[in-house]
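Q: Structure for this?
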Amino acid sequence: MADTIENEHTGHGYIEHKDQVLKRLRRAEGQVRGVQRMVEEDKYCIDILTQVSAATKALEQVALALLDDHLSHCVTAAAAEGGQVATEKLEEVSAAIARLVR
Amino acid sequence: MADTIENEHTGHGYIEHKDQVLKRLRRAEGQVRGVQRMVEEDKYCIDILTQVSAATKALEQVALALLDDHLSHCVTAAAAEGGQVATEKLEEVSAAIARLVR
Amino acid sequence: MADTIENEHTGHGYIEHKDQVLKRLRRAEGQVRGVQRMVEEDKYCIDILTQVSAATKALEQVALALLDDHLSHCVTAAAAEGGQVATEKLEEVSAAIARLVR
Amino acid sequence: MADTIENEHTGHGYIEHKDQVLKRLRRAEGQVRGVQRMVEEDKYCIDILTQVSAATKALEQVALALLDDHLSHCVTAAAAEGGQVATEKLEEVSAAIARLVR
């Protein structure tokens, strides 16, 4: 029973997050296109770098939001199951975090 | 019963990791002291920077190892419990990951 | 005289780099769009995260390439001039590097 | 003549920075030792991670300060000289920045 309620919450939470993630991704895409325009128009290096940093930060936010979702849904579900699946999911998410940090 | 076995495994795994983490921390401490010596002796900037990067990478490795332990023990245990505790643990670990990424 | 030759080299080098930078930016844009598609199609979190990391790394490469250009052209030119301009350019580039590192 | 004045300024600036850098390094060393103690005493993972992040940030600050010094002294001097030396110094500092960013 508790499990069903949990899953419903999970589903709703996920859809909400998805819209937010897509909005951020569209903004990041716009920023990357903005950087292209700045490079084509020979804008000042430092201003372009500021824009590149903004796009990178936007993508980092997306990554952290996706990771949150993944931890609270997939990893939690796998942890509840336990065994080999849980171990694999944990190794997988650890590798993903390591890629984000480096 | 499964829980007891899980906890035993957890305990053992934790101690193993702890020695590795402490070894890495001692190495990082040695590297930081090495950087101090290089600065005092006016060594070449770029060589000092290389050493600082090595110490930073060592600390990142420690952080990732601690995070692994935390995910597979505390977070997994909290996720199995569910409810408010699980939610709080997940928010806490997400904030810690965000601090590592930025 | 030496200055004229330097500037010619600089100019050529810059155009070359620009094409490379634009190519990388278009690839990064494509990767960000790919991430959007993956999110819309509910692809597996970890696979999306891998793609986000690829886009972030591509933007980092762009930032480093732009910084290279900036150091070898603008900063070098300002350094040759010296005085207040040189000091300001150095502070500006240091701030840009700090934004990239954090 | 201008060169002599430049070098005097450089020298003074460098010594000032050195004390600051050493102070930060000693603090970073203390933080790393603090992390070791926390690990030995089985402190809570998240609290240890916070301390590791603090030490990493301290080292990043040191790296940025050293890079600033290097850019305003060595790279500027090499840029004024021009030629092969300038090219090599710029490549060297670019590589060091890339190591910091990744």
